[in-house]
Amino acid sequence: MYIVGLGSYVPGEPITNAMLATVFGDVVHKVGDHFGVTSRHFTLDYQTDRVMHGGNSDFCVRAIHAALAQCPHVSLDDVDLIISASSTPDDNLPTLSSVIQSKLGIQKTMVMDIRGGCAAIIQAILTAKVYMASGLFRTVIVTGSDCCSRVFYPYLHRNKDRARVKDVMNTLLFGDGAGAVIMQSTPPTSGGFQVEFAESSSEFADKDPGFIFSLGGSNTSYLGQSDVALSRVFQHFPKNIERYLQQVIRLTQDRIQALGVTFADFSHVIGPQANQRLVQDMNERLMGYRATYYYVGDRVGNVPGGALLMALDSLSKTYEWAVGDNVLLMGMESPKWLYGYAILRRVSL
Amino acid sequence: MTKDDMLMWVKNDLIYQRLKLGDMGFTMNDIHNDVPLFDSEGLDLDSVDGLELAVGIEQKWGVKLGKMDDSMAKDHFQSPNTIANFVLELQNNRSEGV
After folding, report:
1. A33 to chain B: closest CA residue
2. Are the C-beta atoms of residues A41 and A63 closer than 8 Å to each other?
3. How much is the ipTM here?
């Protein structure tokens, strides 16, 4: 299975810590420096809360058009399946993937949503791969995206004088954006990657969460509640992250090594973002190997669903691929410690 | 400001109120001068709480603490007592133009 087109989209210009500090004070610098985030993109104007660049489905459509531009032989009529991976769909229903279908103007296709964090895009790629391997579908669009600012920013902005470190960390470290790939069962004539292997698993479901993000659900309805605090929507548990994240990384590394592959076999490792300590840890793990750790979280903040494809697209714009280069995409998420990875191999220039 | 006044500010304003420890079932009696802040035997605070304390000190006293890393936490944020000493030291340094 092959990635024949790759694209990404971020709304507007980068919003720096210095810009946000004019609204929220120096706490932005303190938190941004601590977690290694210098800027992010919001669809909202950070000074007025006005929506400037649409929502999640719009980001996905723009990323898809960028990906389609790389594979002119693919027509929207060819698309058999659209899979979207996100934690912030436009609405619970209709599904994000069906809204994307509508905005693309595709009359008939199968659509599927995967709700998740950083590992969801790996699950989406794996699902596409399985469908294509079955022979059922030949052309699949996969998107990974999130629109975080419309969830939290208006509330935070209204309550800026009461903003605490936890509020800033849970919000301003997150950003908006999308990545998209066009996948086909036949190899591309130029560019593109073969999806050599993909796996996703959940083996720590009994552990306490590192992060909970809830806009309400059937267990916790927010209907009729006039003021739901940010601290209820976003809950972070740093001690659990310190306790379990390393275990998940080690588990992923063991799974990859069990395939007979090491970091020496990759030109780049693309992994989770918005955590300086994790980046340092990954760089230490990669020390002595050929692979370089690449991420864009410092520039775009944490965009859970979109992170890996946005980073891959960013890398592809600056790095001169050689045929045979291998890239490792690693996704892991703290709510229930899911992980996933995909091994991509450059197939042509 | 005396050491006692600073300790009262650290325990009540900075730790108890700013971190909203009352919501977590703590009372002011739990926050004695030498209670370990980040230890499970004490208040069991996390790294984000540590950042919150640093921001609170900076905002109240107009000082810059630098990067809030493990070394800073170990050296100056062990207990209300060590924080109070640290803030007083920063104030003294500032008034001496150091």
Report:
1. B67
2. no
3. 0.82
